[in-house]
Specification:
Elements lengths: L6 H10 L2 E6 L3 E5 L3 E15 L2 E14 L1 H11 L3 H11 L2 H9 L1
Antiparallel strand pairs: 1-3, 2-3, 3-4
Amino acid sequence: MFPGLNPKNMEKIMKQMGIKQEEIDADEVIIKNSSRNIIIKNPKVTKINMQGHETFQVTGDVQEEMNEEDVNTIMEQTGCSREEAEKALEKYEDLTEAIISLKE
């Protein structure tokens, strides 16, 4: 975290400030939203509790995956190809806007 600072001293300082860290064993972390999933492979997950507020720090190999249902819906509604549906969804990040853009 801070170059040249002994990890034991850093841990002691954080404890005095009311900050606790805990490593979480995880195989994969998935963040889902309406247009795609963000998948983090080989994650390193740290849970940080700071005065009763929990936050998570996640690092790892990131890959994105389109929401398959949305891609299929766009294809059905517009008659476009899979590639066109994926590009529209990637551009607009919203199912409705993607469909409207392809119908114009």
